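Batch job 17 of 40 flagged for manual review because the log was empty.
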Amino acid sequence: MKDGFVKVAAVTPVIKLGDCIYNADEIIRLIKEAEERRIRVVCFPELCLTGYTCGDLFLQDVLLTGAKNELVRIAKATEGLGVFAVVSLPLQVNSKLYICAAAIQNGRILGAVPKHFLPAYGEYYESRHFQQGTWEVRYIDIGGQRVPFGMKLLFDNTEMPELSIAIEICEDLWMPQPPSGSHVLAGATLVLNPSASDELAGKRAYRRGLVSNQSARLVCGYLYADAGEGESTTDLSFSGHNLIAENGTLLAQSELYSNGMTVSEIDINKLVNERRRMTSYASGDEGYVHIPFSFGKTELAELTRHYAKNPFIPEDEGERLAALRQIIAIQAHSLMSRLRCIGCSHAVLGLSGGLDSTLALLVTVEAFKGLDLDTHGITAVTMPCFGTSKRTYANALVLAEELGVELIEINIKDAVLRHFEDIGQDPEVHDVTFENAQARERTQILMDLANKNNGIVIGTGDLSELALGFATYNGDHMSMYGVNASVPKTLVRELVRYIAVNSKSKRLCDTLLDVLDTPVSPELLPATAEGVTSQITEDIVGPYELHDFFLFYMIRYGFRPSKIFRLANYVFADDYDRATLLKWMKSFYRRFFAQQFKRSCLPDGPKVGSVALSPRGDWRMPSDIKATAWMKELDEL
């Protein structure tokens, strides 16, 4: 449960129809197995104590009494266990019969939630036997325990107050206004659904989408346990299709016609942080009864769920390609809108032959084509100096030629050396002044060329550089429109690769692929005698794949450093040791806080994803705040 994780399981037992003793034994066995596996929350299918397909036997005293007695036995068997379990049964209350889900934990029946929507169409005829459950909570006796009964029940964990569990049953989810909508507004963060959904052709995909979408709409965890083997096949087939979803992401699902546990971890902390930032997420718990329960101890849940190494890039190929196309369209159309608005038909950018300036040029060309403007209205300026490598210089020349833009070469060595004389800088001292003077000289040239040609300067810097402050203030940090401002370095690579493999020109494709293979460098320190760069960015600031990972979980979900570090160790276990991860994570936090002043005066640029650092939109932070609290937590790891 540390870091907000709670391990959960949707469980499909093999049942014997109408044999409550056998079914209870199987449920007890699975609850104890869950305890051994440190699973804290388990959900069993609808009417699992009797079986869903008992038909008119639901009106028999033998079946109803047997189910109730076995529920009490199951509850007693959980004494001393930490597992919170939901078991479904037919329950008679005041001479009426309800489909109920009973919450059980540590020897107690915490509450019983009735089903609200009863299907009576097609193959379903629940209203033949059962009554519609009501919202209001009253108290009933089950085996000598005073048990709350009603739909407005929430079960709140004492060790993790943010974990509040609600229950809705099968058909409740399929309705236009599922009860879970009210439950989450009352504070529920995890919804459990005991279900008996028969299998039909195409229903698996529909069911999966329904559960995932509901978890997204409600910003919650959703646990769906489906009936399976042992149900009658007289007219229907039950496949045990279990699902676990979190805020629109399917974490786990079972194979059809399988039994046992489908397990994953719900990140309650992530859900609460997401709701906190959504000011439109309402609340209201009028009439709800909150039932506290304790797991008995707080323990570290072993992570089994999947996390992407590159969270900014979809892993599914179809989704990834669609996202890349859309991002390029956002960048290009945003620039088109800006050019159209100001009546501008000329753009200027610095083309180093590196990754960021290459993407910026590709986007600018796309924008000009979209406006039916001559691409010769784009002036690409290559400005070699002390650190320019032969490789990047050659690639810049080919890119300009292949893309049909004007190329200007201005060697800035003499201008920078004259500037060094003016300010008394020793050119043999390769300090920050030596580096930044080159970046600012280049920006001055770009700005003046834009003025001369009635154009605008297109910024090339990316989101990762902005996060780390790896840009020269009032140098490459400044432009008139930054098309890459919310594109992290890992995503820049994917965008350039996408354009390369889809290019009709082999020469352009080969050049773009070579740009991708070139180590990222500002090329501000003298190159080797062979004209090879001597300055590698990731040797200085650390691997961009790590920094993008840190950035995503810090900004998108507000995770604390210790949790992000835990996730990084889990995801990059085969790539970096613990000491290396901690080193670069400390570097990330130091730089992120210290460099806010650069982000506070950023040029305009389009947002393309869920993380951006514009001071006018997504990220507003004082420039003089200290990282003391964040660094203290990292020092204690």
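Reviewer: the log was empty due to a logging misconfiguration, but the result itself is present. The first helix runs from residue 20 to 36. Unflagging and moving on to job 18.
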